[in-house]
Amino acid sequence: MSFLDKLFKKKEAPAAKVNEAANKVADGIGKAANSTVKAAENVAKAADGAVKGAVDKVATAISSNDAKVTHTLEAADLGDLLPGAPSGGKINLAIYWAAACGGCDVSILDVNERILTVGDMANIVMWPVAADGKEKDIAAMNDGDITVSIISGAVRNSENEHMVKLLRQKSKLVVAYGSCACFGGSPALANLVADGKDEILNYVYTKTPTSANFQETYHKGNPVIPQTSYKAPEGELTLPVLYDTVKTLDQVIDVDYYVPGCPPQQETISQMLKAVADFAYKGVALPPKGTTIGITTKTLCDECPRKKENARITEFLDPYQVNVKDGVCLMDQGILCLGAATIGGCGAKCTKVGQPCRGCYGPTAEVQEQGASMFTAVASLLPILDDDPICDEEKIIKIVSEIKDPLGYFYAFTMGKALIKKAVKETGGQ
Ligand code: SF4
Ligand code: SF4
Ligand code: SF4
């Protein structure tokens, strides 16, 4: 029985009531967002209309026959160290970061000493964070010469776009590695900034305390923002063009496999390397195109060891405000946890140590809209049913107003794939 089924069965809430509850949450969230600082006003504008629409859409998304269906693999260890070079010769492996923080690159080292033997299996033809390998070297290769390209990060600027298209052209297989590549990740929250790159550049280079001080000191009255082209006596210097919208990898190129997580966890990475190694060493068929590697078919709640009572939420608390009890569901303790709206696979890494799930493995296979799915889950736990003594709207708004940065919380990793209408219109990146 699903999480929502259990909730609805417990209270036997009619669907109309749940919809009403969801709309009240959306209203409250919109009002909460409207009361935040100026930067958040743009988010609130997007939220006011869009969240209501998204909440309405969630029931459709949950049950839709069109919902994305992914093939899944159970997590598995890599097993023994890789046994020297494959008999057919080394494969070519490229690892690239687009709009990424570098955490995904570092996470690959989480396979511990096995990383050393990846060198036996593969020629690493590009890995900007760890090895040489230039764009011109890749451009000189024949199409299909690279066996696998593992790409982390979203697509945020012209360089990202050029490189991922080049790697796609040269690679037999492309893996979207990490939440930014799979779903847009935290960079995609920039899609909620109404005036896009201009507003972002202006804020970063003139309003943040350090840049404001710098501009005031050195460019009094005439702040300098980096340009994408500068004609120097020696020739033209260029920088990548920042785009207005942040895209997921598969919104720009064809992707063969997905590896979610921010960053992917050790078990997930091992599963990915095992699939590649089985192919390279034993000729084992690769998983079907479109496979999301290292996830389960259930929600994170199903692999979380904490016991859930589905207590009604009367306030939201940050983990630091709570003396977190072992073994008890964090939601039951008032801590907002996205486990109900997140696919399993990470082994409940965060909730095991008393931190709420923020949803980095993305939505379950049945839904496209992780954030709206969580809005509905929260609405189902609010004390708003007729037989509850505290069900007035004022109280509900007060409770949901305690959710800080609601869009940032519910869509921390998946805004790039969200159904919520983007606030920004792409202007062509110029
Ligand atoms: S998914 Fe997380 S760790 Fe990976 S690049 Fe994005 S922000 Fe960094
Ligand atoms: S702590 Fe989070 S993941 Fe664990 S059961 Fe509760 S809601 Fe689900
Ligand atoms: S518990 Fe949630 S946020 Fe933490 S690693 Fe797992 S999916 Fe990501």
How would you describe this structure to a colleague?
The protein is α/β, with parallel strands linked by helices and 430 residues long. The protein folds into two domains: 3-67 and 298-417, no CATH class; 91-184 and 248-282, 3-Layer(aba) Sandwich (Rossmann fold). 38% of the residues lie in helices and 11% in strands. The chain has helices spanning 3-11, 15-34, 38-63, 103-107, 114-121, 135-139, 158-170, 179-183, 196-207, 209-218, 266-282, 300-303, 349-352, 370-381, 393-401, 406-410; strands spanning 91-97, 122-126, 146-152, 155-157, 171-177, 229-232, 235-238, 242-247, 257-259. Strand 6 (229-232) and strand 7 form a beta hairpin. Mean pLDDT is 82; it is low at 1-19 and 28-76. It binds iron/sulfur cluster (3 copies). One iron/sulfur cluster binds next to helix 13.
Labels describing this entry:
single chain; alpha/beta; Rossmann fold; 5-stranded parallel beta sheet; two-stranded antiparallel sheet; disordered N terminus; binds iron/sulfur cluster
Draw up the topology in text:
Layout: H1 3-11, H2 15-34, H3 38-63, E1 91-97, H4 103-107, H5 114-121, E2 122-126, H6 135-139, E3 146-152, E4 155-157, H7 158-170, E5 171-177, H8 179-183, H9 196-207, H10 209-218, E6 229-232, E7 235-238, E8 242-247, E9 257-259, H11 266-282, H12 300-303, H13 349-352, H14 370-381, H15 393-401, H16 406-410
Parallel strand pairs: 1-2, 1-3, 3-5, 5-9
Antiparallel strand pairs: 4-8, 6-7
Helix pairs in contact: 2-3, 2-14, 2-15, 3-14, 9-10
This protein binds iron/sulfur cluster (3 copies).
One iron/sulfur cluster is lined by residues 300-301, 304, 306, 308, 329-331, 337, 339-340, 351, 357.
